[in-house]
Every structure is written in C-alpha cells, then in structure tokens.
C-alpha cells in the first residue's frame, strides 16, 4: 500500500483535490508545482519553472504553465486538462477521468476514458532544467491517439501575463518537437518527444484563466496564456511516450533511458521520515561552485537566516554532512565578506541582519554535536573566533554590547532585528527593539560553544578566556532582565519597557545547549510555553491571552502581515521545545515528544503532500498557510526526529 495514494472519490471532488499540491525540484532552482489534479491554483504553479539569472539573480520564471492531454478514439476527443476560467468555471474537467493519484516514487496519475486506461508519470532531471512526462497506454480496445497542447507563460512567478502583441509566435521545429521563446532575454524552451509527433500550428490566446489561491489571498489572480498549437501521436496498448521540456535540445532516443535512470535514483516517499528527507533535499540549490539553501517554495528566496536555521535539520539529520559543509561554506563566505567590507550578498539576502552571526554559530554547534568536536574544530574554529570577536569588538552595525551587563541590543524600530520580520508600510509589525530574549540567549550559547571549540588550542587561550568571562558576565543580568515574576521570559526589553507578550522566543532560550537559566527556571518557562503556545502544528507566535492575538493567517496582504507573527504556529519551533523538554524531564519526555510529532505526520497527505507549510493557523483546524513547503519547518521536525532516534534507538 502506498504511503501517498489518493483514489477516485477524492480526485473528482475539487473542493478536496484542489487543496492538495505537489512539488518537484532539481536542486538548481527549477521546479514543477501544481495540484494533484494538474489544475494550477497559484500564479507560481507551472510545469517548468526555472531561474533566469540574466533577468534576475534571485528570481524564477514560469515558462511552461501546463500541458493539456487529449485522448482521441473513434474521432471523439476526451480532454484530460483542467483550468479555472473567469466566473469560477472549470473547463475541460479532465479530473472526472482520474481513477488514482500515487506520489510515493514519482507523481503518477491514472486516467480511465471508456475502455482506455492511461498513466502519466512526471520526473525532474537532476541538475538540469528539464522535466520529463511518461505516458503509458495500459489498456485500449481500439486505435488511440494522444494530443498535447502546451500553455505558455514566459513570465516571472509573481507576475501575470495578459494577451499582447509583443510575443514571438514562431515555433521552429527541432528533433521530434518544436522550440519557442516568447520574449527577448528569456531562454529558449525545447518541447520534444521520444517519438516523432505531428505538430499542428494552431495559435490561440486562452483568456481569463484564474488562480483561486491568489483570489483567496487578495492579490491579482487572472491571466491569459498562449497556446501555439498541439502535438499529435498515435499510441498502441503497452506503449509509452516520453515528453521533454527543457532549456536545451536533447536526443529523443535518450529520453526513455534518461527517465528510467532518474526513477532509479529516487528515494520513495514511503514513510514520514522519507517524505521529510525528500522535502529537505528539494531546498538544496547548486549554482556553479556555490551551494545554497532555499527558504521555501514556490516563492521563497535564499535567505541568510533561514539558511543557518535550516542547515542542521535539512543536512545533518538526514546524514548529509558534506552538503552542510558545502552550503555553509558559501554562506560563511558571504558573512565574512560582510564583516570585512560591509558588502551584502546578491543571492543570500539579509546577511546584514543582527541575528545572522548568532544563528551561524548555532548551526556550527549542531554540526559539532552530530559529527564531533574534532571535525568542527578542523572546519570552523577560525570562523567561530572571527564572528565572536567581531561582535564583542562592536563592529557589527546593529549589535551593541553593553559594557556592564554584557547583554546585546539591536535597533528593530525601522527594520526587523529577528526572525519576526513581517512589515506593513515599510515598518515592522512587531518592532522588537533593544534587548531581544532569543538573541541574548543565542549570544550566551555561542560564547560557551566557542570556548568549548577553542579548548586545547594554544593560539586561542586568551580568546577563550575572554569568551568565558563574557558569558559569565551576562548570565545573571540575563536572568534579572528577562525572567519575570510569572515564571516566563519577557520577549524584549527596551530601556524601562519590558514586553510581557508570551511568545515562542523564550522556547529558543531554554532549548539551547547552554542557557543562563537553571533546570528549575527552564521548567517554569516550559510550563508557560506548553500551556499557552503549544499546538499540534508547533508553537504559536503569540499566546491567545496576549494583546493583539490573530490566530488566522487570512485576508488581504496587509491583514496577513499583521497576523503572521501574532498567532499562527510555526513547526520549526517544536525542535527547541523538544530540546527544552528533554533537558527538563530527561528520557521520560521521549514518548511525549514522539506523540507531539503525530500532528506533523498528518500533514504529509495535506497541503503540499509530503511537506510542511510555512505556518499554520493557531486555532483549529490548524490549516496550513504561506509557502507550501518551508525549509525551517522541515528542518525543525527532522532535527526532532533525529534527537528521538538517538535517545530511543529501538
């Protein structure tokens, strides 16, 4: 039995099937994303979406929006496509022919049209911007022909295209297919088959295609797509046809072999862990000698904070230490360049933000725990020392070290100084400024981790003494500043103001390896987090008892920004909660944390199947929102699973 299989009853119910999305990537930034019934519901959906550095070094572009298939028997056409048009009209309703969708190995849709049974399987080629689709005629009692209509967009993923006269409508033939390039500066796309098709040039604009998810989000949602014509190929029972869409011409004779080799290399999504592992690897991006971690799909960028927060779970927790080292190397070079020159990075965005050095050292600490201190010393001692001294010497433009208390502060009034980055009108929704609880906890943790890394290194004796003394200096001031009479931690302190909001940043503070709080104090904070923030989908970003609680991430773009960090739950925070829980309760807490993960396994068949959304509503039914596959959330749950496995290997 497949772990991810959906039958006819679900597939023909659009209310259910349109809510389920699937994603495939190739680790170069390209992706394919749509719903399980192949009806695009977001402008970011597409059959072939690729980076085009010549247009934008951080952008992605939808070239091939979809490919409509038509089965022809006895001269009668049966269109398997599905689009939503103006007024909420779905046409041509090809979903009614679907009998099954299986997503364990590769996405596989089975159609039945009268006596015809046809399967469709899609796969992305590793390290190449090319998607392959294999069609197999399983059953047919009479002559059958397949027709294929490509819907072309050639636009940036967050834009929409309208009918225009600027397109290049020419589609010159190539080997077993045609190529096209609608606008200048875009790459040429080649559409080919493993067998010679008949190409019929029959150009039309398909107007008024709607994307229902964008409609729900209160953003533009209607566009026109260009269909230059259609391919036609006869097919016999037992035969397969392979379609290719890519940025270079390929030998048609190689397509079948290429498809079969890619299938062999896939890890089946046959369990909770395997689903998360596949999702984790989808965030890897290779660009020449540089490797990156994408923040999420389908509109995520490479963000410095998300990179460091995601790396341990998305590499080390799935036994990919070499990928950790490669991605960290790219990110660390960008951070060192910023420390040396103040220059930001064109690809890794947000490298200048004040918590980035702290998350970088936390990430390296996780490497040391997973691979060993000796390996961490070999790879990262010099970098760790540079970062700590950079902060302590006051060279970061937005990290201020108090000479008396040792606590660090940042200005978050005009630009967010932490992961709570939502903005309205160009200003932070939550202007956390001054002394931030998690930044100070991360600093304390970094100092003591740096000291452990430098132990036994004669060249770092003075630095180690400095770091240890600095940690000791800030320990009691941290407690005096943040721990309040109600047993939890203030979220931030700015002068005489102590923010009483109950937020999950204190869970980070108590979940770190080194914490200024003792076990009893950690337990007090943990009790508040459990009582007010814990949900089946992670920790709420604000307690329901706190002012400004907004549990649902819905409405206009402004309403969603206001809600983003004021209620909705974040799965990645469960890893810090789990770390804290085990530190307080020991092995007796393993079964409890294991039960907490059930809510995440349930999500494997919801939303983006096999993955986790960016955030979840804070109140039942805890619906997923935001990006459909988010790196930090996958990483947090994987890190928790790895911790449980170490504590309970049976």
Report on the architecture of this protein.
This protein is an alpha+beta fold and 650 residues long. It contains 18 helices and 35 strands. The strands form 10 sheets. Strands 1-9-10-11-12-19-16-15-14 form a 9-stranded antiparallel sheet. Strands 2, 3, 4, 5, 6, 13, 17 and 18 form an 8-stranded antiparallel sheet that branches. Strands 27-28-29 form a 3-stranded antiparallel sheet. α7 (321-341) packs antiparallel against α8 (356-371). The longest helix is centred in the C-terminal third of the chain and has 22 residues, at 461-482. It is elongated, with a radius of gyration of 26 Å. The relative contact order is 0.09. The mean pLDDT is 96.
Characteristics:
18 helices, eight-stranded antiparallel β-sheet, 650 residues, nine-stranded antiparallel β-sheet, alpha+beta, 35 strands, 26% strand
SSE arrangement:
Blueprint: E1 5-7, H1 8-11, H2 14-17, E2 21-25, E3 31-35, E4 46-51, E5 60-73, E6 76-79, E7 83-85, E8 89-91, E9 98-102, E10 108-113, E11 116-124, E12 130-139, E13 144-156, E14 173-174, E15 177-180, E16 189-193, E17 198-210, H3 212-217, E18 222-235, E19 240-246, H4 255-264, H5 272-282, E20 284-287, E21 290-293, E22 296-297, H6 304-314, H7 321-341, H8 356-371, H9 373-392, E23 400-401, E24 408-409, E25 423-424, E26 427-428, E27 435-436, H10 437-454, H11 461-482, E28 492-494, E29 497-498, H12 505-511, H13 519-532, E30 534-535, E31 538-540, H14 557-564, E32 569-570, H15 574-585, H16 590-596, H17 598-602, E33 615-616, E34 624-625, E35 629-630, H18 631-647
Antiparallel strand pairs: 1-9, 2-3, 3-4, 4-5, 5-6, 5-13, 7-8, 9-10, 10-11, 11-12, 12-19, 13-18, 14-15, 15-16, 16-19, 17-18, 20-21, 22-35, 23-24, 25-26, 27-28, 28-29, 30-31, 31-32, 33-34
Helix pairs in contact: 5-18, 6-7, 6-8, 6-18, 7-8, 7-9, 8-9, 8-10, 9-10, 10-11, 10-12, 12-15, 13-15, 15-18
């Amino acid at each position: 039995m497949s772990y991810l299989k959906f039958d006819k009853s679900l597939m023909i119910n659009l209310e259910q099937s349109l809510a389920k999305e699937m994603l495939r990537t190739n680790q170069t930034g390209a992706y394919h994303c749509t719903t399980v019934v192949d009806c695009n519901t977001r402008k970011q959906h597409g059959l072939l979406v690729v980076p085009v550095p010549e247009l934008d070094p951080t952008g992605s572009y939808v070239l091939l929006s979809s490919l409509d298939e038509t089965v022809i028997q006895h001269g009668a056409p049966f269109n398997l496509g599905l689009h939503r048009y103006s007024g909420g009209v779905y046409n041509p309703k090809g979903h009614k022919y679907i009998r099954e969708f299986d997503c364990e190995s590769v996405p596989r849709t089975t159609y039945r049209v009268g006596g015809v049974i046809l399967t469709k399987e899609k796969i992305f080629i590793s390290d190449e911007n090319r998607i392959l689709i294999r069609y197999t005629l399983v059953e047919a009692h009479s002559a059958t022909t397949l027709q294929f209509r490509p819907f072309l967009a050639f636009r940036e993923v967050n834009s929409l295209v309208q009918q225009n006269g600027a397109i290049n409508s020419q589609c010159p033939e190539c080997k077993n297919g045609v190529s096209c390039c609608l606008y200048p500066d875009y790459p040429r796309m080649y559409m080919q088959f493993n067998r010679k098709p008949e190409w019929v040039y029959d150009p039309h604009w398909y107007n008024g295609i709607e994307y229902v998810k964008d409609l729900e989000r209160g953003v533009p949602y209607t566009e026109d797509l260009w269909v230059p014509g259609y391919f036609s190929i006869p097919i016999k029972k037992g035969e397969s046809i392979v379609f290719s869409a890519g940025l270079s011409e390929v030998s048609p004779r190689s397509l079948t072999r290429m498809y079969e080799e890619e299938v062999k290399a896939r890890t089946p999504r046959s369990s909770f862990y395997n689903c998360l592992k596949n999702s984790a690897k989808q965030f890897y991006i290779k660009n020449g000698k540089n490797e990156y971690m994408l923040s999420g799909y389908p509109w995520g960028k490479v963000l410095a904070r998300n990179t460091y927060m995601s790396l341990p779970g998305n590499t080390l927790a799935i036994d990919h230490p070499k990928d950790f080292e490669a991605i960290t190397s790219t990110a660390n070079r960008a951070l060192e360049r910023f420390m040396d020159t103040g220059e930001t990075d064109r690809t890794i965005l947000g490298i200048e933000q004040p918590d980035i050095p702290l998350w970088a050292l936390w990430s390296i600490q996780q490497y040391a725990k997973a691979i060993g201190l000796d390996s961490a010393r070999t790879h990262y001692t010099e970098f760790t020392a540079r970062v700590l001294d950079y902060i302590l010497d006051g060279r970061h433009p937005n990290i201020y070290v108090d000479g008396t208390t040792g606590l660090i502060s940042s200005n978050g009034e005009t630009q967010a100084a932490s992961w709570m980055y939502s903005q309205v009108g160009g200003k932070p929704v939550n202007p956390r400024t001054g002394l931030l609880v998690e930044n100070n906890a991360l600093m304390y943790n970094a100092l003591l981790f740096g000291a452990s890394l430098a132990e036994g290194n004669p060249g770092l004796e003075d630095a180690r003494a400095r770091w240890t003394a600095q940690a000791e200096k800030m320990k009691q001031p941290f407690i005096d500043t943040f721990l309040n009479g109600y047993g939890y931690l203030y979220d931030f302190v700015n002068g005489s103001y102590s923010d009483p909001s109950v937020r999950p940043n204190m869970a980070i503070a108590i979940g770190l390896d080194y914490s200024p709080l003792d076990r009893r104090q950690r337990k007090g904070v943990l009790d508040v987090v459990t009582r007010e923030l814990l949900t089946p989908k992670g920790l709420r970003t604000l307690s329901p008892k706190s002012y400004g609680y907004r549990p649902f991430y819905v409405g206009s773009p402004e309403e969603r920004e206001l809600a983003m960090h004021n209620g909705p739950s974040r799965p990645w925070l469960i890893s810090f909660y789990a770390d804290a829980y085990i530190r307080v309760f020991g092995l007796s807490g393993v079964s409890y944390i294991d039960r907490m993960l059930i809510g995440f396994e349930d999500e494997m068949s919801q939303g983006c199947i096999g993955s986790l959304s960016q955030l979840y509503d804070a109140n039942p039914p805890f619906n997923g929102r935001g990006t459909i596959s988010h790196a930090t959330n996958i990483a947090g749950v994987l890190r928790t699973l790895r911790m449980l496995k170490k504590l309970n290997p049976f």
